[in-house]
Structure formats: structure tokens, C-alpha cells
Write a structure and sequence with these properties.
By secondary structure, the protein is of the alpha/beta class. It is built from 10 helices and 8 strands.
């Protein structure tokens, strides 16, 4: 049994803000090669506004061309609203990644509405979808570039609502501000709340250069056993100023090797 699992976000988070448009065939090859390396959980695209995120405009086509990888590989799709969920369902998507933030600045920038409105729409759109098929990203969990530190009551509300929607809650360090103290603090909060969902972690690089391994070790010691990563460290949120590149998949595997942990993937592959 592996000590932890990798959730690869390169085909979505890694490519969404790229300056050039990657051809559909290249995205399909990227996903196939990631799966071939032994990674079993991959976010393959996003059903978002193609005018705002043109690199995700072909997500339906990409999914149709890689769906044969199931069920050995879990293929997730980021969906921002009911329209995105309906589009995803039409092409056969059955694993949905939803997102919101305790920061109303983030919600206004990414959804154009308040957290309460975002949550209400997700409740309606996900009616009939099993919670096991939903991952909930709590964005800017470790700090907002405009709002700053997240208030405890705002975080508690976001976590409670996330727990009601999905079986996994992904704490997203959108601006790379996480550190071992903050990770410990937020995990103590989740423990006290008695959440049913598993907790995963999505890390970005930030001002703490060369400190990523500290964050990973702290999170693992706190009981986190699923980590998002992006091949080559590609990506960052296009709507959040200061969002650095993602934790690289090869960096995550190198940390696992250093700590003698098994993630089911060999670095050479």
C-alpha cells in the first residue's frame, strides 16, 4: 500500500495560463504519458469560459480522447458553475472538481459572485452526484493577495460547506504563502471541526524559496495523504496576482524518495 497519492493537475492548472495554446493532440499525449508513468489521478481540463481561459476551450475534446484510460485512471474536470457541470456531464465526465474561497475577493474575481451564491449554485448543480465523485478546492486557504490573512470564521464556513459537497477537500495555497506553522494551524482547525472529507493539499511556490520540502513533510506528518502537483511545475492561477508555479510532480516524487515514502511512482518514469 502506498504512503500517499499524487493528483496530477498539469493538464489543467499547468496549462490554463500559458501564453500559447497547446494543440489538443499534444494535451492528449501529455495525459497519456502522465498515466503511463503510473499516476492514477489526473485533472484533464476545465469547463470554463473559453474567452477567459482559451487554453481550456478544447477540454471536452481532450476528455473524449482520453476517457479510455478509465477506470484504471481517475479523470477529473474542473467545473466553475452549473453550466460547466452540465457541459461536463454531456461528454461523460463523472469526477468533478469544484472551487471557492473564504476570500470574497477571490470569489468575485473567479466566479463574479459571493461565496454564498457560489455554494448555492453548486448545491443545485451537483444534485444527484455522489459526494465520492466531488473534490472541493478551498482556494487561498493560506492567505489572499488582497484580503491578506483569512479570518477563522470565514475559513470555518468554507470548510463546512466544502464538507457538505465532496469527499475530498483540497487546501489550495494559491499564492505560495503556506509554511509549516500555517499548515499545522489549519489542520488543527479541520481536526476540531470533525470533517468527514479527506484533506488534500495543493501547493504553489512563493517567497519561501527552497522550503517546499518543509511544507510537504509537515503536511504528511499532519495526516495529509494526497498532494496535487503539476509536471515540470507548470501553472498558476491567472486571476490571482502573485500566484507562483505549482509544486512540480518530479519535486514531489523526489521528496518522497528522500523520506523513504512510497507514492506508487518512480522518479525515472
Amino acid at each position: 500500500m502506498t504512503d500517499f497519492s499524487i493528483y496530477e493537475v498539469g493538464p489543467r492548472d499547468g496549462l490554463q495560463s500559458a501564453d500559447t495554446i497547446m494543440p489538443t493532440a499534444s494535451k492528449v499525449e501529455m495525459i497519456e504519458r502522465i498515466a503511463g508513468a503510473g499516476i492514477k489521478n489526473i485533472e484533464v481540463g476545465a469547463m470554463v469560459n473559453p474567452e477567459k481561459v482559451p487554453n481550456m476551450a478544447d477540454s471536452a475534446s481532450v476528455f473524449k480522447r482520453v476517457h479510455y484510460l478509465r477506470p484504471e485512471v481517475t479523470l477529473g474536470m474542473l467545473v466553475p458553475n452549473k453550466r460547466g457541470i452540465d457541459r461536463a456531464k454531456r461528454v461523460g465526465v463523472d469526477k468533478f472538481n469544484v472551487f471557492f474561497s473564504p476570500s470574497e475577493y477571490f470569489n468575485a474575481n473567479n466566479h463574479g459572485k459571493s461565496l454564498a451564491a457560489v455554494f448555492s449554485e453548486y448545491c443545485t448543480a451537483l444534485h444527484g452526484v455522489d459526494k465520492e465523485d466531488v473534490r472541493v478546492y478551498v482556494s487561498t486557504a493560506f492567505g489572499c493577495p488582497i484580503q491578506g490573512e483569512i479570518r477563522n470564521e470565514d475559513m470555518a464556513r468554507a470548510l463546512t460547506w466544502a464538507d457538505s459537497l465532496g469527499s475530498s477537500i483540497v487546501l489550495a495555497d494559491t499564492i505560495g504563502s503556506a509554511n509549516p506553522i500555517l499548515i499545522n494551524d489549519i489542520m488543527r482547525v479541520t481536526d476540531k471541526m470533525g470533517l468527514n472529507a479527506d484533506i488534500a493539499l495543493h501547493l504553489h511556490h512563493g517567497p519561501r524559496k527552497n522550503k517546499m520540502f518543509d511544507n510537504l513533510s509537515t503536511a504528511f506528518d499532519c495526516g495529509i495523504t494526497q498532494f496535487d502537483s503539476s509536471i515540470k511545475g507548470l501553472g498558476g492561477c491567472p486571476f490571482v496576482p502573485g500566484s507562483g508555479g505549482n509544486l512540480a510532480t518530479e519535486e514531489l516524487i523526489a521528496w518522497a524518495d528522500k523520506e523513504n515514502l512510497d507514492c506508487g511512482v518512480e522518479l525515472s518514469r
